[in-house]
Write a structure and sequence with these properties.
Blueprint (H helix, E strand, L loop, with lengths): L3 H13 L6 H16 L2 H13 L5 H27 L5 H24 L13
Length: about 130
């Protein structure tokens, strides 16, 4: 009887459809977070990965790639504006706000990914 259990488990997984691998989106979120330390270099790698894998999974997973791509471009804008505003000293505060925004956005994305659902407010410029 023990020999049949693995086959039964495999059959049950095949009938339900196995959950897609979420390793790549997790890596992209981590690369975005690491971008704060690397000056955005790893975030650039992450957005390239997101562009490559977009459209190759279920809709909820594709929404994560879309969310990650938007996160990259919006973060680039926020950090760019913060860089310009450092000339008038307020940029340090806006840079800190952008860091907090990025962390919250990535954590929300990772939480939704863990629950196998699309992230909330994909089109939002906020969190």
């Amino acid at each position: 009887m023990n020999d049949q259990l693995p086959q039964d488990d495999e059959r049950a997984l095949a009938e339900r459809g196995a959950a897609p691998d979420t390793t790549i989106p997790i890596v992209v979120y981590v690369l975005h977070l690491a971008g704060m330390v690397t000056g955005g270099l790893t975030s650039l790698v992450g957005v390239v990965i997101a562009y490559v894998y977009r459209g190759k999974g279920p809709d909820w997973l594709d929404e994560h790639y879309r969310y990650q791509i938007r996160t990259f471009w919006i973060a680039l804008l926020y950090f760019g504006i913060s860089g310009l505003l450092t000339l008038v000293l307020i940029g340090f505060l806006t840079w800190l706000a952008a860091v907090v925004w990025l962390v919250i956005r990535c954590v929300k994305g990772l939480k939704a990914l863990n629950e196998h659902r699309a992230p909330d407010n994909v089109d939002s410029w906020w969190v």
